TrEMBL record:
<comment type="similarity">
    <text>Belongs to the short-chain dehydrogenases/reductases (SDR) family.</text>
</comment>
<dbReference type="GO" id="GO:0016491">
    <property type="term" value="F:oxidoreductase activity"/>
</dbReference>
<dbReference type="InterPro" id="IPR002347">
    <property type="entry name" value="SDR_fam"/>
</dbReference>
<dbReference type="InterPro" id="IPR050259">
    <property type="entry name" value="SDR"/>
</dbReference>
<dbReference type="InterPro" id="IPR036291">
    <property type="entry name" value="NAD(P)-bd_dom_sf"/>
</dbReference>
<keyword id="KW-0560">Oxidoreductase</keyword>
<protein>
    <submittedName>
        <fullName>Short-chain dehydrogenase/reductase SDR</fullName>
    </submittedName>
</protein>
<dbReference type="Pfam" id="PF13561">
    <property type="entry name" value="adh_short_C2"/>
</dbReference>
């Protein structure tokens, strides 16, 4: 299926590995010119090389609003504009209510909420002027069902989802869609760290009996950025192999 994205320009945050890189790879395969960011130059250069000709790598830390906005501005300069914004960031450290200091919340909110706000502030106004744009946030299935021992992530990503839904309603008439994908358990470095490297324990929690493949996630992300998905906005879609059990 031709997604109608040839020649579009995308900024994909935190995309040197995992779901971010898989999303950038899927967009690049559809003819999108992609700019990605990461904090480590060596990892960034390796990721850019895997995306083929025309990809740009930007050393940036989206863990602060300033760093997040700077990434988008530099992507706009490199690409001549940004039609597609994919917000993404690593997760804050694990912990429960009793073990997590109050001061830790500000950093987590910067990482997983305020970075999203800052990137949208930088990217969305030009999209509205051009009457076409896609904002896609990579959040977590824990927005729907908070995970034990991840209180910081649960809190920050839920806030980001509220912001994205509100933004979607405000810009829908301008040809800009705003959606989020809520990944469940995928074979990423973060999941390996959380499960001590034993993904069989994670797979046992998924009805399909396996953890997700990052490239499959990327294909879903690319579709939501496509012309075919122009009537989907304000959605928060689980990609979790059926692990979320509720009706809504």
């Amino acid at each position: 299926m031709d997604l109608g994205l040839t020649g579009r320009r995308a900024a994909v945050a935190a995309a040197t590995s995992g779901l971010g890189l898989a999303t950038a790879r899927a967009l690049a395969a559809e003819g999108v010119r992609v700019a990605i960011c990461g904090r480590d130059r060596d990892r960034l250069e390796k990721a850019v090389a895997s995306l083929g000709d025309g990809a740009h790598g930007i050393v940036a830390d989206v863990g602060t609003p300033e760093g997040a906005a700077d990434f988008v501005h530099r992507a706009q300069e490199a690409l001549g504009g940004v039609d597609i914004l994919v917000t993404n960031a690593g997760g804050p450290p694990p912990g429960d209510f009793a073990s997590t200091d109050v001061d830790a919340y500000a950093q987590a909110l910067n990482l997983n909420l305020m970075s999203v706000v800052a990137m949208c502030k930088a990217a969305v106004p030009p999209m509205r002027e051009r009457r076409w744009g896609r904002v896609l946030a990579i959040t977590s299935i824990t927005v729907r069902q908070p995970a034990p021992n991840l209180i910081l992530s649960n809190t920050a990503r839920a806030g980001a989802t509220g912001f994205l839904k509100t933004l979607a309603l405000e810009v829908a008439a301008d040809g800009v869609t705003v959606n989020s994908l809520q990944p469940g358990l995928h074979a990423t470095d973060r999941l390996r760290a959380l499960y001590g490297g034993d993904l069989s324990k994670a797979a046992a929690q998924v009805p399909m009996g396996e953890v997700g493949d990052a490239d499959d996630f990327g294909a879903v992300a690319a579709f939501l950025c496509s012309e075919h998905a122009r009537f989907i906005t304000g959605a928060a879609i689980p990609v979790d192999g059926g692990a979320y059990p509720a009706l809504l």
